[in-house]
Amino acid sequence: MILNALQTVFRKSVYGILALFVSASAFVLAVWLPNIRLVAGVVISPDVPLLSKIELPLSLLGSIGTNFTLLSASYTVLISILFGIYIAMMTYFLRRRIKDVTQGGIATGFLGVASGVLGVGCAACGSFLLTSLTLFGVGGVLTFLPLGGSEFGIIGVILLGLAVYMTAKKIQDPQVCNIQN
Amino acid sequence: MVRKINIMEEKTQTTQKNNLAMPIAVVIAGALIAGAVLYSGGKTPTAGQPQQQVAQKQTGDLEKMTPVSSKDHIRGDINAPVKVVEYSDTECPFCKRFQTTMNEVMDTYGKEGKVAWVYRHFPIDQLHSKARKEAVAMECANELGGNDKFWEYADRLYEVTPANNGLDLAELPKIAEYVGLDKSKFSTCLASTRYDKHIQDEVENAQATGGNGTPWSIVVGKDGKKYPLSGAQPISAIKQLIDLASK
What we know:
The complex is a heterodimer.
Chain A: H1 2-10, H2 13-32, H3 36-44, H4 50-60, H5 70-96, H6 103-121, E1 125-126, H7 127-135, H8 150-172
Helix pairs in contact in A: 1-8, 2-5, 3-4, 5-6, 5-8, 6-7, 6-8
Chain B: H1 2-39, E1 73-75, E2 82-88, H2 93-110, E3 115-121, H3 131-160, H4 171-178, H5 183-191, H6 196-208, E4 213-214, E5 216-220, E6 226-230, H7 235-245
Parallel strand pairs in B: 2-3
Antiparallel strand pairs in B: 1-3, 2-5, 5-6
């Protein structure tokens, strides 16, 4: 069923391009997340030569191999791909049945992304997750997480997968007029 | 009529299924977290363990960085135009990786006198309860053997630790002996509390500058401009940043 829905959506190349664009953007943002201040500072600064504005952010993308574990790199890539697919499918769906959007699908997708961001942010020791938890006064909760916060990334993959499944199901569910008698 | 009722029942079931999707997703998420807690054996933080060393806010002020001085642990020339000030946690696997990267950076830029590497402590107790003791061990190495022994000890410590709290603390005096320090004096120093404040000051300084994870580095340029660098970045990125800071 999912495969059929994917074929239906990605038969039109515009959705494939949209998915690729969103996936690539999500991946780049996820990898840059710990250094977003540096990237923004370098790109905005008038004192930085143009070549450095391009080269430095590009070289930071290499941190997927140095600042991520195999597990966190895997779910970062998966979340990016699933997010791209999800956005493309939702766009396809919304353009056809705007009144029939399932709130559950959207909420699951949103939760998936939110959870994924926490997991991705925890790629380095501490980082975004630790700060977030500490801000809410529950920094100690990390002591209970055997994977040091990667649990959020895994949950993100599951929720996004679920959101894609729910959207695919709705796409495959034909809108027909029911017989009343 | 019967057919109409059946259709209505089917529609109700479908709606119920859709309504159930959200709670099911939340239950799965909750179950995973609960599973993680159970898997960890319900560990609780040790009494008295410092819990406040984590960043108070996400964005700090780089200008709050304690200026580099001769009191710091410096590899390379203190007067080098570019300084990489690293706040590190010895049990963080990314700091272990970054130690190797920075040694490679220093092999070229350090020997040319272009870069000085400054090491400061940033143990994250929530993740690595042993890191603070290891920071004390490094300070003891410095006390007994000076700056060179500090770095020798640091290199060896990062080499032998499997990271993620994997080092047996009984190894600390053995590492001291390995780098040529008096094991007995080292153990006495290690048992003392004289470096606790110094380490805590560096942790707080890391937080004040915006450090919310390790390794957290601040690259100080020739003109004094500061660039934040979070995580174990590839050597190409570090070299790019050093080149930029040296202009």
